[in-house]
Design goal:
Elements (H helix, E strand, L loop, with lengths): L6 E2 L1 H8 L3 H9 L5 E3 L5 E4 L2 H13 L4 H8 L10 H35 L36
Length: 154
């Protein structure tokens, strides 16, 4: 593949990154990437946008939300390739968040394994059962699977 110029089209960015042009336009609408317009109205992206798109993809694969990704990307330079120091700052800012996600996933794995493996097949004795939606006051989602303990305070 020939070398890219400093400004690349959305088609070139799509081809090089493997991300659909519709997704790239969505990322742009969310402020994750930026382009400039030619006199004819066509988008042109700075070449370092390739790394930003790769970063977005990797962050999404580990379960980070687009809002979390956008917050992180605001710490990186837009018109140049981030340096090792730039990435180190971003990495340090995510350490706590990623540790918390790991704990959540491990808890979910343990609870699912014990639930599936218990074999009780009984809604009367299930430790994850939320009868009459008693856990709703604790927030949305599968509260018991997310780590809340069932109890009389439900």
């Amino acid at each position: 593949m020939p070398a890219l110029s400093d400004a690349i089209t959305i088609g070139e960015l799509s081809q090089r990154s493997g991300v659909a042009t519709s997704a790239l336009r969505f990322y742009e609408s969310r402020g994750l990437i930026a382009s400039v317009r030619t006199n004819g109205g066509q988008r042109r992206f700075a070449r370092p946008t390739l790394r930003r798109v790769a970063f977005i993809q990797a962050a999404q694969r580990v379960g980070l939300s687009l809002d979390e990704i956008a917050t992180a990307l605001r710490k990186l330079p837009e018109r140049r390739t981030p340096t090792k120091a730039d990435w180190a700052v971003l990495s340090r800012s995510w350490n706590g968040l990623l540790r918390a996600r790991i704990v959540e996933l491990e808890t979910l794995q343990t609870r699912l394994t014990s639930c599936i493996g218990c074999g009780c097949l009984s809604l009367k004795t299930c430790g994850l059962l939320n009868t009459e939606d008693r856990a709703a006051g604790r927030g949305s989602g599968a509260r018991y699977l997310l780590g809340d303990a069932p109890g009389v305070a439900d």
